[in-house]
Amino acid sequence: MAERLKGIFTPNLVPMTQHGEINEAELRRYVDWLIEKGVHGLYPNGSTGEFTRFTPEERRRIVKIIADQTAGRVPILAGAAEANVKETIRACEYYHEVGVRAVAIVAPFYYKLSPASVYAYFKEIGDNTPIDVTLYNIPMFASPIDVPTVQRLSEECEKIVAIKDSSGDLPHMIRMIQAVRPNRPEFSFLTGWDAALMPMLLSGCDGGTNATSGVVPELTRALYDLTTSHQIEKARQLQYDLVKLFDVMLYSAEFPEGFRSAVELRGFKMGCGRQPLSSEQKTDLQTLSKELQCMLSTHGYSDEPIGGCPIDGNSAGNADEVTRIVSTVVAELKRRGMVD
Question: Where is the active site (predicted)?
Fold first, then answer.
């Protein structure tokens, strides 16, 4: 049996040339850097990787480049969602051939489907895939995968081995773990919501596919290590820092342009994404870049911008929310005798 999926899988951004094509040399350099910084795995063709903005041939090329450059050093969880189930199964076959560990497949998007249709879609894939499959629940962009559907698929399809949930809904994650783990103890649960990584891990998640790990892999890996070793206070402070960085990158620009700007500050030529930007948006990105540079400089990952940085404002709102969630989870773990 293959090892369960666990740890931090980085959803890779794709560097682009000035002509809007895949910058293979920079992508290879980025992969090496992420592995050197300690991420547990790589996740190409996810939402952060803008998979819908590439052709099927480009998506396969991205995975092939990353698989070649990784050379087995870390596992790869490749996004394999295509426009229909037939093409998705073909993608599964291709990624199996290039040697990735597993694929992640989002529920059907554009058409909002019923739970019965979502089940039928994944059942068809689970019965015909040569490679392990991770369900991908992201209800803001695709048909939701509810708990009964996850439970049924886990019990009927051996090749469905995990779920990645990007809803950020902690109770939903707990309900899935409670429903699935008794019958499939090897089934993996990954969170795609960086702002709740610590409480998700404390609740039983095995890891995450976290966009911040593409910018500050050192911090995201440290948060995982501290949380899984129950060093709660140290982990809590890192979660505060990641929430602030995550919010700025996510909400201050069109997704994932904030993340692309931040990776530029780590020394990579990311180029422009394929979504055109207005002149106002480009100006906003320049302002955002300065703010991100200040945030990265506090951890020693960048120099301060010319003119320096403002005194850090009060982030008590985020901190209070994280504290409340973590305290609730820790109290429950103590009640069960799982932590001292």
Answer: 136, 164
